[in-house]
Design a protein that fits this description.
Elements (H helix, E strand, L loop, with lengths): L2 H13 L2 H30 L3 H6 L2 H4 L4 H28 L1
Helix pairs in contact: 2-5
Amino acid sequence: MTAIQEAKAERIITTVPIDEIEEALLNECRRRIIRCKRVDETMKKKYGMTFQEFKSKNVVKEQGFSWQVESHAMEWEHAVEGIRYAEQKLKGISQ
């Protein structure tokens, strides 16, 4: 952490009670999980499979690398990774 980052963190910690900071972080993680799960569920419904199945069946290639399918693949992968990342952060903050 740089000196500027440390000073900023110190200013935040002395201004906002730590319980409020923790609750804000928990809520942000939960919000991200909900948003990413919504994308995941939408794509599961659209393609009738999980993202792992989508990848293993190489649907993007199967659909001729169409822009729509490629953009869905990127958005879906981002959502799945977002769920994993936010759940990991949520677990770390909750401990």
